[in-house]
Write a structure and sequence with these properties.
The complex is a heterodimer. Chain A is α+β, with helices and mostly antiparallel strands. Chain A has one domain: Alpha-Beta Plaits (2-Layer Sandwich). In chain A, strands 1, 2, 3, 4, 5, 6 and 7 form a seven-stranded antiparallel beta sheet that branches. In chain A, strand 5 and strand 6 form a beta hairpin. The longest helix of chain A has 21 residues. Chain A is elongated and about 70 Å long. The N and C termini of chain A lie far apart (60 Å). Chain B is an alpha+beta fold. Chain B has eight helices and 26 strands. In chain B, helix 6 runs parallel beside helix 8 and helix 7 packs across helix 8. The longest helix of chain B is centred in the N-terminal third of the chain and has 20 residues. Classes of the chains: A alpha+beta, B alpha+beta. Chains A and B meet through strand 4, strand 5, strand 7 and strand 8 of A and helix 4, strand 4, helix 5, strand 6 and strand 25 of B. Strand 8 of chain A pairs antiparallel with strand 4 of chain B.
């Protein structure tokens, strides 16, 4: 009896082993719902997330850095470095910009909700007294630890 | 009479100071019903409402400092977090003008929901009031508090970041602002691929780094401020969102060879010199199981475990038995209306490096209070010089792996405690060690050290162009000679590496004195890192006090030649765990170039 049981156990054991090894093992893949539309923001290339179809990029548009899979969301802010003698409040008033922050020669202007941000950035860049402009964005994944 | 009092005070102070050196144990002064259970202030082996206690003496060591009445008065701490119940009965006496709620643009920082609890817990660890007959107390129970709910969804804009991190707006004076000398940031990210630290491609990095440098170096008449940051909770598992399986956690059945999934240098802002990064230890005086670690950890502080089978941190909670931590799954004995906390205003389950960071923020407030003339650089030095070695016998972590040629080899990925050439002890788990408030305050009160002029050098580019052999312990190296006289505070490196599996890579920096710092541990959770490292930045404090002059060596080692199995746990869906595999790459990598800069003193 014992003699017969051992081969049986061996068969069952090998069946289990075969099942375990047959269980598929997946490779992790990034969530990259890319729309395929490439955009350049602040000098870096991104692709627009598929869920956002607006190529003009409005506030809330999600962008993916395809080399790292990092997603950033446009906040609608324009972070502007002004020439040192320019008063940001007067600058905003003269150019009908919504000033939400100023400290020294750094000012942040908020775009209108559905404004095309690349156009907004380009328009502000052309204004006299502007040294440097970057689109504001939120980098994904910040959480309490 | 004045002369006599001054002399008497000096004698008393000198006596207490001498006693501090004699390691006399002082009890915590009574006056708060939960203070006897706050092991992080004084660990007597109490269970802190969990199943068991820890190891006596493994704590912040505040007793003498508090007994001398040094409790953070005159120093304000900023809590950059979610909402804060600033009118909590144990916080309101320390509330100062300047808090801001970005959600509704008002100074009312009240939590937005019953689960918006994190900021209230963090605030209590820093500065819950003492001697008022309720709850416990903070490390700095007379420090001021302001808060900013930057972490709340929708508030993470650049303007709000600047406003909450001390760069308050000129044109929009919210109200008079009690300017903080310490900023607590109990937040961070989990990363599955290395990131670039490039000012050209990501100008926000420069905006933020410049802001923190300016606040650190120029505020308070040049005495400055300090940004404290949590290291993260990614040692054993990390959150990950997979395209096929959704959100979940990654973990390894072999505990990832004992190595951290998240190295603190993966998070960009943790590799900034201007953040003082804190890891967590538990009531046994060992690394909290979750704590992210690495060479940019400056010090360690209590973060505890989970408050169920072993202690977490007791602190203020959003009021009410149906709010905050009280209704959490797996309650501990304090929760739900304990006689010592009948209104459920406190929690005994706060944990994480989120809890460790405010312990250090409170300690800094106390140190600054003990000697307001100290600069930010002095305070950092005091912490480095007085933090104590814990978990003294920890052997480090050796990674055993099969080389591409088939030979089994061992790589010391995390060293045991090391003493560098300047005599400072350092461990990648704990930085300079566990903060010891009494020792730090003692040094602060009689501080007479001139550290010299602070210097930040330019980045020096080193072209390497050498192949990194796949799965070979020998690795590659590249050298750089620094010719100036400089005492090192920290060293920052950025690397450019072509590689198709960054998880395999260990990166070391070796000083002219021969001290080795592993600035990137191998087998991190960068499972998506198949595009190498482009200007990936790392910081190390390992060389503190050493001389920069001489030959610096960067080594890169590929430590893997086999597939690795791991688990994806879909946390929310209730689905079974999924077997995953990280495929081995067989290509050699290339160390293209790297740059180095020093933060130090002349």
């Amino acid at each position: 009896m014992k003699f017969k049981l051992i081969p049986l156990l061996a068969v069952v054991g090998s069946l289990y082993a075969a099942q375990a090894s047959a269980q598929p093992a997946y490779e992790a893949t990034a969530v990259s719902n890319s729309s395929g539309v490439s955009v350049n923001v602040n000098g870096k290339d991104y692709v627009l997330a598929a869920s956002k179809s607006d190529q003009d990029m409005v506030t809330g548009a999600a962008l993916i850095d395809v080399s790292t899979d990092e997603t950033v969301t446009l906040t609608g802010e324009l972070v502007v470095e002004l020439e040192s003698l320019i008063n940001a409040k007067e600058f905003a008033s003269a150019n009908r910009l919504n000033l939400i922050y100023v400290r020294g020669n750094r000012a942040i202007f908020q775009a209108a909700p559905n404004a095309a941000l690349l156009t907004f950035k380009s328009d502000v860049e052309k204004l006299s007294g502007v040294v440097n402009v970057q689109l504001g964005f939120q980098v994904e994944g910040l959480e309490a630890e | 009479m004045n002369i006599k009092i001054t002399k008497l005070a000096f004698v008393v102070a000198a006596s207490l100071s001498a006693n501090a050196h004699a390691n006399i144990e002082y009890p915590l002064m009574p006056g708060d019903p939960l203070v006897d259970q706050q092991w992080h202030l004084k660990n007597t082996g109490q269970a802190a409402f969990s199943d068991r206690g820890g190891k006596p003496g493994e704590d912040m060591n505040v007793s003498l400092t508090h007994a001398m009445g040094i409790m953070g008065a005159g120093v304000t701490a900023a809590v950059i977090d979610g909402g804060v119940e600033i009118m909590h009965p144990d916080l309101r006496d320390n509330a100062r003008p300047g808090s801001w709620n970005f959600t509704n643009n008002s100074p009312d920082l009240a939590p937005g929901s019953p689960t918006d609890r994190h900021g209230t817990a963090v605030s209590g660890i820093i500065a819950a009031s003492a001697f008022n007959g309720i709850g416990g107390r903070g490390v700095a129970p007379r420090a001021g508090l302001v808060g900013f709910n930057y972490l709340v969804s929708g508030n993470q804009t650049m303007a709000n970041w600047l406003q909450s991190h001390g760069m308050y707006s000129d044109g929009f004076a919210k109200q008079s602002f009690d300017f903080p000398r310490v900023f607590n940031q109990s937040y961070g990210r989990t990363l599955s691929s290395p990131r670039s630290f490039d000012y050209e491609e990501s100008p926000w990095l420069k905006t933020y780094e410049d802001a923190q440098e300016e606040i650190t170096r120029t505020t308070h008449g040049g005495r400055g401020a300090i940004f404290v940051k949590s290291a993260g909770n990614g040692y054993e598992r990390q959150s990950f969102t997979d395209s096929k399986f959704g959100r979940g956690y990654l973990r390894f059945d072999n505990y990832n060879h004992g190595l951290p999934l998240q190295n603190v240098n993966l998070e960009r802002m943790d590799s900034s010199f201007w953040n003082l990064v804190v890891s967590a230890y538990n009531a046994d005086g060992e690394r909290s199981s979750y704590s992210t670690v690495g060479s940019s950890v400056f010090v360690s502080a209590p973060g505890g475990q989970y408050g169920t089978s072993s202690p977490a941190i007791i602190t203020t909670d959003v009021s009410g038995c149906d709010a905050g931590y009280n209704p959490l799954w797996l309650r501990n004995d304090l929760h739900g209306g304990h006689p010592l906390d009948p209104n459920c205003d406190y929690s005994a389950r706060s944990n994480g490096t989120s809890a460790a960071a405010p312990n250090v923020a409170g300690a800094i407030a106390v140190i600054m209070s003990a000697n307001p003339a100290l600069s930010w650089l002095d305070v950092r030095h005091i912490l480095a010089a007085t933090s104590r070695r814990i978990d003294a016998d920890h052997p480090g972590v050796a990674l055993s792996f099969k080389e591409a040629g088939g030979e089994q080899v061992s790589y010391q990925a995390i060293d045991a405690w090391q003493t560098n050439a300047a005599g400072y002890q350092f461990h990648n788990f704990y930085g300079f060690g566990a903060v010891d408030v009494d020792a730090a305050v003692n040094l602060a009160r009689f501080y007479d050290k001139n550290l010299g002029e602070f210097v930040k050098t330019d980045r020096e580019l080193v072209t390497a162009g050498v192949e990194i052999p796949d799965g070979r312990l020998s690795g590659v190296q590249s050298n750089y000679h620094y010719a100036q006289d400089l005492t090192v505070d920290a060293v920052q490196v950025r690397v450019n590496i072509d590689h198709t599996s960054t998880r395999d890579l260990a990166i070391e920096l070796i000083s002219p004195s021969g001290t080795r710092s592993v600035i990137m541990t191998p087998r991190t959770g960068t499972i998506l890192g198949n595009e190498g490292m482009q200007n990936t930045q790392m910081l190390t404090h390992h060389f503190y006090g050493e001389q920069a002059k001489g030959e610096w060596t960067l080594r890169v080692i590929d430590t893997a030649s086999e597939d690795e199995a791991y688990i994806f746990d879909p946390r929310a869906s209730g689905e079974p765990n999924i077997n995953m595999v990280h495929r081995n790459n067989t290509e050699n990598g290339v160390l293209k170039s790297w740059d180095i800069r020093f933060f130090g003193r002349k």
